[in-house]
Amino acid sequence: MSAAPTGRNWAGPWPKTPGRLLGTGLIRLYQLTLSGFIGNSCRHLPTCSEYGYEAIARHGLWKGGWLTLFRVSRCGPGGSHGIDNVPQTLDGRLTWWAPWRFVSAGHRCTAGK
Asked: How many CA within 13 A on the CB side of residue 51?
């Protein structure tokens, strides 16, 4: 029997580098302050802030930040919906000097029914 998660953010192991701590800290600050006012309408599971926290924790501030930015852009009207998890690993073509390639990196939604 596994224990229930202690929070809504990803609790897996991740390196606590300064960039990752900064990124996850900013997302956590958003969750504790503004999310109650402007959040609560995400069209995906996990929510965009949970996705951002996990993406930055797993892939670092630069790559996780781009994944988060493109995920939030898909959340608006006319965007996708459903289950959209953070990719476990990233393709080798996703480099720091080509951030536009991150548009399709995490875009594997499955509609929840």
From this structure: 27
